[in-house]
Protein: Putative phosphoglycerate mutase
Amino acid sequence: MSNTFPATPGQWHNRYLLMRHGHSLANQQRSIISSPERGLVGYGLSPRGREQLDGLLADWRWAAPTRILHSDFLRTTETAARIAQHFGLRLEAETRLRERHFGAFEGEGDDHYAEVWARDALDPAHRHAGVEAVAEVAARMREVIDQLEQRYAGETLLLVSHGDPLQILLTALEGRELSRHRERPPLAPASITVL
Structure:
């Protein structure tokens, strides 16, 4: 699946492919897995996620990446590793691409996302129940792009992350209010958005 993000011509020094990890065991179990304690060692790709990546790689329609940075959670690492192997690249873990931390909802059912997102719409700085604020996620994600822009030019950079952080980053890059990040169409597992 592909999404195209409208960019101002000449805005970027590099090409960016933003990718949500493939379908994971957390998705399959409908569980919120956002803490490093769980996400680094468990809840990797599901069989469906591995199939998604097989299909994506067989029908790759984007520029070939020259570098791959990924969240160090297992599901994003496994996603990035399959792509890196296909293109003969090495992996670069980047902790700022991690999942948004959902605080007290960790390990709970994914039906709790709606409660968090409703609060986000009222206040992107909220930290209800220990949830990482939207504004904090936007800042760390944007920082990755800003540093890559300073470090490289002419690269095609694949950033493998998670649904919520990528939605928040795209909202920030669009210059929209962060409280509106859920107004964007949700990013499907194994989808790629081109900046």
